[in-house]
Amino acid sequence: METDWSKVIEVFSSGIIGVFLVMILLQLLTQLSTRIIDFVENWNKSETTEPAPKK
Amino acid sequence: MFNILKELIYSSGAVSLSGGNLVMWLVSFVLLYLAIKKQYEPLLLLPIAFGILVVNLPLTFLMEPEHGLIWFFYHYGIEMDIIPPLIFLGLGAMIDFGPLIANPKTLLLGAGAQAGLYVTFFAAILFGFDLQEAGSIAIIGGADGPTTIYLTSKLAPHLLGATAVSAYAYMALVPIIQPPMMKLLTTEHERKIVMSKLRPVSRLQKVCFPIVTAMTIMLVVPPAAPLISMLMLGNLFKESGVVERLTNASANELMNVVTIFLGLSIGATMTATTFLNPKVLFIFFLGLFAFIVSTGAGLLMAKFMNLFLKDKINPLIGAAGVSAVPMAARCVHKVGSEANRRNYLLMHAMGPNVAGVIGTVVAAAILLKNLG
């Protein structure tokens, strides 16, 4: 059976590029969501912390 | 009396035995030995080996379509894509994505290791396999059994036994296959790099991760949905902390039950006629090649990232980008601590290791999209 080399190249290149794109997107979204959560959690902490009593 | 005895002999399976059956018994005994004596992936190899043995006993018809007992397990479990996603549910309930969330750039190492998979795809084509078969063989490099089974059952079901056994065998052989490659592609100085401690990850971050990941991957690569949805659901069970019974059921009871059916069904696909041909030898060779190249690609990706990073990573953790969880991470830790006794790489390697699971699913989904 004749190999369809154009299909082979397409699978090869779209595969490598596709995996990297998805993982980069996931990395960016993970970083973004963790930063937002960090910010919200720190803000909540500072809200709930009692101010130090004045002497 | 003589006639009864004669009839009994002629109706027994013994007279229908072929040379191929005997060879498959031998394969089964070797796998049983590896599982029981050497304890190489015994949870999978033991039922696989027994499946090979019983399906190669003539006239049992265990894999007879619409009639055989194991055929029903195979048909409903694997052909209808039930078992691999259920394994992923259990896996998700056991995995801790904390190290990955603490250091998200390790996701790139999980992607880097998949490059080996596509190199093997190319190599398999050169060896004369067709596109679908080459895709099924290449995924072995991801070192992820359920994903290999899932993809092969869709693209080249006739290769299922060989690719599954190959994937699980190489996963068990991680401590033998990976260290030489790690030492070959890294210098002593690089192996000694001590990485800074991972930052703590809050519960909310761990709860959000499976939701964000499931949505992202399923929106971009829909064919990944069956595996990634179950993986992330299992992880959400675990991290939510409110469904302990479901977490335990997924990680223990369900996982154990489906493992039995998975192993037995895979073993039962390995009849003498399907397994004893030269192609299978090539599959084992290409599977090993895929695993080695994927390990190398992960290591090189880590070295490449170090060119741009201020806080250098130990390139050994790139080798954990293949998804053999947690064997690859343990192996990285061992090689790292041999170079520097103060080096504790296990948690750092768990990041790329779980990223590898995600990366392999994405790679499989893209192969399925292009070849299915």
Task: Provide an overview of this structure.
The complex is a heterodimer of chains A (55) and B (372). By secondary structure, chain A is mainly α. Chain A has one helix spanning 5-48. The termini of chain A are far apart. The model of chain A has no long low-confidence stretch (mean pLDDT 87). Chain B has 372 residues and is mainly alpha-helical. Chain B has one domain (87-371). Chain B has helices at 2-11, 19-36, 42-55, 69-79, 83-94, 98-102, 107-112, 115-126, 131-138, 145-155, 160-172, 174-185, 188-191, 203-220, 225-240, 244-268, 272-275, 278-306, 327-339, 346-371. In chain B, α8 (115-126) packs antiparallel against α18 (278-306). Chain B is globular, with a radius of gyration of 22 Å. Chain B starts with a helix and ends with a helix. The A-B interface holds A 1, 3-4, 7-8, 10-12, 14-16, 18-27, 29-31, 33-34, 37-38, 41 and B 100-101, 104-105, 107-108, 110-111, 114-115, 117-118, 121-122, 125, 130-131, 135, 201-202, 204-205, 208-209, 212-213, 216-217, 220-221, 355, 358-359, 362-363, 366-367, 370-371.
Keywords:
heterodimer; A: 55 residues; mainly alpha; 1 helix; 80% helix; 0% strand; rod-shaped; B: 372 residues; 20 helices
Brief overview:
The complex is a heterodimer of chains A (55) and B (372). Helix content of chain A is 80%, strand content 0%.
